[in-house]
Amino acid sequence: MVDLKHEAALQLKNLLKTALDKAMQNQELTKSKIPDFLIEVPSNPKNGDFATNLAMVGAHVFKTAPYNIAKAVTNHISLKGSYFERFDIAGPGFINFFLNRSWFSQTVKSVICEGENYGKTNFGKGEKWIVEFVSANPTGPMHIGNARGGAIGDCLAETLSWVGYEVTREFYVNDAGNQIEKFKKSLSLRYKQIVNVEKNLPLPEDCYQGADITDLAKDFYNIHKDKYINLSEEERGRALVEYALPFNIKALKNDLLKYRIKYDNWFLESALHSSSEIDKIIKKLDSKGLIYNKDGALWLKLTDCNCEKDEVLVRANGIPTYFAADIAYHYNKLVDRGFKKAIDIWGADHHGHVARLKGALLALDIDPSRLDVVLMQMVRLVRDGKTVKVSKRSGKSITLVSLLDEIPIDAARFFFNTKEASSHFDFDLDLAVEESSKNPVYYLQYAHARICSIMKNMADLGYKPTIDADYDLLKKPEEIDLIRLLARFPSEIFESARLYDPSRITKFTIDLASGFHKFYGACKVKGSEDNILTARLNLCFAVKIVLKNALSILKVDAPESM
Asked: Other CB atoms closer than 10 Å to residue 223's CB: what's the count?
């Protein structure tokens, strides 16, 4: 697609460079290397659609006042055949540019022509990227942090797809290591209690205390009765885990599908152990002289890789650490499977792990910049202004499933993306179910439904959207502002992908819905003269397209009636 806003900015940059060359040739400015300058969008449209700081940054190069530079440059700017109709000099030397009617007309036409593809670009050129997110331990249900990570990761993956990357969504299943040993011990103790062995023995603090563990042990008992009670602790625990783990993983998949997240791949940590991938990595690091033995454990010399301290890779008991598995996992992604970039969504408590993992990649001759980690802050659920820790319905801790029992999926997906991942977030449970303009999801879905209603009513009167119309008739401020918003959409997707920040999309949808409601209040469609009616109906249709496209990235429904 053509991003007309980006195209106009590039055109303006070339116009300025040409004018600057002419000013130097005419000796109005000293011949010099053209300084780096910015093309920006002013916060107030009264100051132009674009502005440049060329004169300001050129002052030290051309040894003259910014205003003189601005005058010299604008003396040689020709707007003929461009997207611009005029310019002015503001303040000490800022140059503001105003787009012409042709640009606004082409914007509406582009939206209608491209339809569901409007906003997509080929910037990524099909490069293979992988986004790994949620990756909750399969020893229990997903918590609220996982719910936020799921919404952020899935929407980030979608924005990357929209800008042309070939994206794989992956869930890393931590089915090995200490948490599985803890899972095994917890299940075994619950099983023994059910068959009246050690019935009154309380579960130690280092065991999982949740009711889900008891439920799994009961289900296992209902199938096998006391068959495993006299076996060794290891045999009994292994049988329980072999039963319970697939059950939990299937539950994770079902819960995430309900949340509208479908992964391309579920990668098992245990596969790294069974295929000797971890051993392969340790041998590679050892061949570089980066492995040493201390107190029976194998350590990685991360201090040789710009890290603050070394890390254990294999414990004294011979069991590899989670860190060793993580190195092997990322080697698998970036080398064995050939992804150009790996993006992980992690909790903020993993901050120190990022530098250590990047150090390990560097030790393996992998460019650490090929791994990016989005650190996500905590979520606080709020009801009536107070922190909530249990489900209103079940009285138990709020999990992803219990949250979705209380609020709409649309609200969950949207709300979790309203702030940058690096920001702490208060999730207002009351607001999420409120059917008023205070609820941003209701507000923007109502805008989409209102447009559908307008189009249906106009169709009943014989009016349908078309590509061609006299868009020069759209002159009111509310119409112009709305078209500016439509033009902003492709750059918002691009910036969301570039900054790994899908919250830009939610903010954009609110701006677009607000712009439409203002337009609807100031510019009537029904009852206008036919040529104005057609132009405004087309504008409504373009807004519907963009709003639906934005909601599709967030996987939020765009209802046609409410």
From this structure: 9
Nearest alpha-carbon partner for 242 in 184, 197, 281: 184
Determine if the pTM surpasses 0.85.
yes
CA angle, 120 then 551 then 253, to 5°: 100
Distances from the Cα of 100 to the Cα of 48, 103, 119, 540, angstroms:
11, 6, 22, 21
The gap from C-alpha 180 to its chain's centroid, in whole angstroms, comes to 30
What are residue 128's DSSP bridge partners? 166
What's the one-letter identity of residue 267? F
Give Dmax (Cα) for the chain. 99
392 and 378 in contact (C-beta within 8 Å)? no
CA distance 182 to 304: 34
Q: How many CA atoms lie within 13 A of 535 on its CB side?
A: 21
What's the number of CA atoms in the CB half-sphere (13 Å) around residue 417? 35
For 273, residues 6+ apart whose C-beta sits below 8 A from its C-beta are 176, 320, 325
Helix 322-331, helix 277-287: angle, nearest 10: 90
Sequence-distant (≥ 6) Cβ neighbours of residue 554 within 8 angstroms: 155, 158, 413, 414, 417, 502, 505, 506, 509
d(CA 551, CA 444): 9
Give CA–CA dist 121/142, Å, rounded.
34
Q: Digits of tens for pLDDT over the chain (562 positions)?
A: 668 899 999 999 999 999 999 999 999 999 989 889 999 999 888 899 999 999 999 999 999 999 999 999 999 999 999 999 999 999 899 999 999 999 999 999 999 999 999 999 999 999 999 999 999 889 988 999 999 999 999 999 999 999 999 999 999 999 998 889 999 999 999 999 998 866 666 778 888 888 889 999 999 999 999 999 999 999 999 999 999 999 999 999 999 999 999 999 999 999 999 999 999 999 999 999 999 999 999 999 999 888 889 999 999 999 899 999 999 999 999 999 999 999 999 999 999 899 999 999 999 999 999 999 999 999 999 999 999 887 666 667 789 999 999 999 999 999 999 999 999 999 999 999 999 999 999 999 999 999 999 999 999 999 999 888 999 999 999 999 999 999 999 999 999 999 999 999 999 999 999 999 999 999 999 989 999 999 999 999 999 999 999 999 999 999 999 8
